[in-house]
What we know:
By secondary structure, this protein is an alpha/beta fold. The protein is 35% helix and 22% strand. It contains 18 helices and 27 strands. The protein has a nine-stranded mixed sheet, with helices on both faces. A five-stranded parallel sheet has the order 4-3-5-6-7, with helices on both faces. Helix 2 crosses helix 3, helix 2 (47-63) crosses helix 6 and helix 7 (205-218) crosses helix 8 (236-249). The chain starts with 14 loop residues before the first helix and ends in a 21-residue tail after the last strand.
Amino acid sequence: xxxxxxxxxxxxxxxxxxxxxxxxxxxxxxxxxxxxxxxxxxxxxxxxxxxxxxxxxxxxxxxxxxxxxxxxxxxxxxxxxxxxxxxxxxxxxxxxxxxxxxxxxxxxxxxxxxxxxxxxxxxxxxxxxxxxxxxxxxxxxxxxxxxxxxxxxxxxxxxxxxxxxxxxxxxxxxxxxxxxxxxxxxxxxxxxxxxxxxxxxxxxxxxxxxxxxxxxxxxxxxxxxxxxxxxxxxxxxxxxxxxxxxxxxxxxxxxxxxxxxxxxxxxxxxxxxxxxxxxxxxxxxxxxxxxxxxxxxxxxxxxxxxxxxxxxxxxxxxxxxxxxxxxxxxxxxxxxxxxxxxxxxxxxxxxxxxxxxxxxxxxxxxxxxxxxxxxxxxxxxxxxxxxxxxxxxxxxxxxxxxxxxxxxxxxxxxxxxxxxxxxxxxxxxxxxxxxxxxxxxxxxxxxxxxxxxxxxxxxxxxxxxxxxxxxxxxxxxxxxxxxxxxxxxxxxxxxxxxxxxxxxxxxxxxxxxxxxxxxxxxxxxxxxxxxxxxxxxxxxxxxxxxxxxxxxxxxxxxxxxxxxxxxxxxxx
Length: 572
C-alpha cells in the first residue's frame, strides 16, 4: 500500500448528528435536485430545507404514536423516501427499507416478519399495499407519498409534513430532543433474494456512521459534487453510498427518472459522480466502442488518442478531457468519477474508462458491513482488486489454502448487530468478533483484496481441486457474443464425476452480426457459443474445462441490484 494520506473527514456520532452538522456547514447549498413534474426541470432543495422537512415529518410520526415504531418504506428513489428514512431513525424509530420490485407475496412476508407499525409508500405501490390491508400487522398505519389528503384511512405524506411543520413552529421538541442509542438496532435490511430465504440484517447508527467516515476518508467526495441516484435506495449500497454519504459530505443528489433517461439526467443535473453496478459501466464502455466502430476513421482516431494520452501521462501531462471531449459531452460534460459495486467488474472496462479521463474505482461490501469494508482509492488502486480495507476495518483470510485463498473475514465498528430473530445464522457468521463473509479471496503483498468467488459456489472435484465459477464466468463474459452466463458443477452422464458446466444467454445482436445472418438457426447459435467455450478452455487448466453447456433463450432472473439469482437456475 502506498503511503498516501487519507482525506480529512469530520467525526459524527450518529445520523442525527450528521444531518445537524451538515446543515450548519452547507445550509443553503443544494442537497437534492428533484423533478416536481415528470420530464420537467430539476428544482433545488437546500440542506436547510431538507433538515426542516426531516424534523417536521419526524415530529408528525411521533405525534401519531410511532415513537420507537418500525416504519417500512416502499417506493422509487425520491425526496419523500429520503425524508422518511431520516425522520424515522432520528426519531428514534426503526426504518425498514423494502424493495419495490419484489412480488406481492414476498412483500407481505417481509412486512409481517419485520412487524412494522407503519408503511410509507409511493403511489405506484398503492394497489399492492391496498390488497394487503387485511393481512398487515394490527394497527399498521398507512402513509401515501402521493395522496394530497387522508383517503379511506390512508394518511397523506404531505399533510403529515405540513402538520409537523406547524408543531415544530409551535414549540414541539419531541423529535428534536429525541435521544439516540447509537448501538441499538435502528435499521432493518432484508438481504437480496440470492438465497432461498432472505435474512434481516440489523444495523445501528454507529455501524453506518463509521462506514460513512471510513469510505469518505479513502475516496474524496465534496460539496462541489453532484451524484445521479440510479440504484434502488432500499439496498444498503445506494442508501449509504448514494444518499447518506452525500448528505454527510455536502454534495448534491439528483434523482434519475429511469435508466433510459441516464444520459439526459447527467446533462441536466451536471452530474460529477455516479454509483453503478458493473452492468451499467460495461454498457457505457461498450456504447463508446460500438459507436466508434461504425466509423473506421473515428475508431483509429480513438485508439491513437488513447496511446498518445497514455504516453503523455507517463511524463505528467494529462490531456484526456480535451482529447476525448466529445465522449465527455455524451455523459454530460461534468462526470469525473464512476464507482462500481455490487459485483466484480472486468478490469479492462475500468481501465478503458480511466483511459478516457473518467476515474473509475470499485469497492467491496456486504449489507452486513453497512456495507463497505474495502475500497479502491482514486489515488491508490488496482483495477483487478476489490480495494484496500477501510480505516476502521480489519480484514483477514481465514484458513487459506496453499495458494493463499481462503474465506474473507472482517471485524470493525461497521459490522452488523446480527440477523433479526435468527440466532443460528448470526452465530454461524459472527465468530469471536469476526464476520465470516462467505466470500473467498486473498490479500496481496500491497494489502489489496482479491475476491475469487463465493464459498457456497465453489466446485470441488473428486481429487480435491477447487474451481471458482466466477473466474470462468468472467472469462466467458469477456466475449461480445455472451450477454450473461452462470457456471456450476454437475454430475457427468458418463461416470457421475463432478464436471464444470455453464448456462449461457447469448447477445443476439452480436450473434447476428458475427454470423452475418438476420435469423440464425439454433444450431448456428450453439456453434458460435461453442467456439467461445473452446477458446476459454484453452486458457484454463485441464480440470477447469467447461465440459457441458446450454444456451438459454431468456435472461437470468436477477435481484434489483442486477445479481443473477443462482438458486432455481436451470441445471439440465
